[in-house]
């Protein structure tokens, strides 16, 4: 009798989990579709139901947001079964970074600047969106993205560069591999190290490893690191308009994890240098019809997130501290 009940229970759980999609409640049907779209695998029935719960809570946040009047929409993405706390620990810089430059060395021109700039359209200057995976290495992608573009603009040749070298080798410059770092400090490393290898020669692993830099394979060089004075967002516009894409950091909060499209603005995030937890690359800017200025930004969470891996964020208000620490390198070619 006891054994029969056990078998029944097991069968019931099994059936429930693998139930045909047609008879599932709507929320779970969406979850099942999402699982197959993102090829997720859960180790146990408990894990499955826990993730279903988190997913359902996230879906509520997304639906509520999208029913309101906002400048951006939210959507499901690869992070939809994670709480923000889990997400933060894996993907974001968890320690406050030393990122502010009280007196930057970028020299602005008097302008005027074009209304719209997108370096992706000006030529073959921006590599495809990459994916940092389960590693707090955003700062390495912001760094390579910027140097790739700076080099391509200077030489006409676009070469993907190594994030893994920065993870493994740039620790003497206040960088901490998968635990975080900053583009300005990574540019300093590349300058003093005399070079960064290509993605092909030093491929991405997405975890901390020992340094395998080979000087003969150095492919990109930094002559000088240019920091933009903290909170001088106009100087960022000047640099992006006249010179090249620019690396910057900002504070990611819960609402950003669900970003889908439109111009991101937030009242949740802070705007000071000590709160930034994610580094990205501004590849352009523009102004919305409703006259809201924005930045066009390359992220490193793959192409399924946001607008094919990119996002727009409000410009001109130091939104989420985005003007706290921006920088770019001068190429040595
Ligand atoms: C939505 O918000 C914008 C600006 O915040 C406002 O101008 C507009 O009237 C709002 N639309 C609706 C339908 O509430
Ligand atoms: C900030 O700088 C100090 C002094 O250089 C260093 O000890 C500390 O590790 C840095 N913090 C981070 C998060 O890099
Ligand atoms: C730019 O920032 C880096 C990292 O914070 C710093 O080491 C460097 O001295 C700064 N460069 C200039 C010219 O201020």
Tell me what the structure shows.
With 333 residues, the protein is α+β, with helices and mostly antiparallel strands. It has one domain (86-331): Cathepsin B, Chain A. Helix content is 33%, strand content 15%. It is built from 9 helices and 9 strands. It has helices at residues 2-17, 26-37, 45-67, 84-91, 138-155, 163-169, 183-193, 233-242, 254-257, and strands at residues 72-74, 117-118, 222-228, 246-250, 259-264, 278-287, 293-298, 310-314, 326-331. Strands 1, 2, 3, 4, 5, 6, 7, 8 and 9 form a 9-stranded mixed sheet that branches. Helix 5 crosses helix 6 (163-169) and helix 5 (138-155) packs across helix 7. The longest helix is centred in the N-terminal third of the chain and has 23 residues, at 45-67. The termini are far apart. It binds 2-acetamido-2-deoxy-beta-D-glucopyranose (3 copies).
> CATH superfamily, called what?
Cysteine proteinases
Question: How would a textbook summarize the main sheet?
Answer: 9 strands, mixed
Structural class estimated from helices and strands: alpha+beta
H/I helix tally: 9
Mean of all residue-level pLDDT scores:
92
State the CATH topology: Cathepsin B, Chain A
Give the uncertain stretches in residue-range form: 1-17
Radius of gyration: 22 Å
Sketch the topology as an H/E string, one letter per element: HHHEHEHHHEHEHEEEEE
Q: Helical amount among residues, as a percent range?
A: 25-40%
CATH architecture assignment name: Alpha-Beta Complex
CATH class: Alpha Beta
- What gross morphology would you assign? globular
Total strands: 9
Protein name: Pro-cathepsin H
Organism: Sphaeramia orbicularis (orbiculate cardinalfish)
Subcellular location: Lysosome
Catalytic activity: Hydrolysis of proteins, acting as an aminopeptidase (notably, cleaving Arg-|-Xaa bonds) as well as an endopeptidase
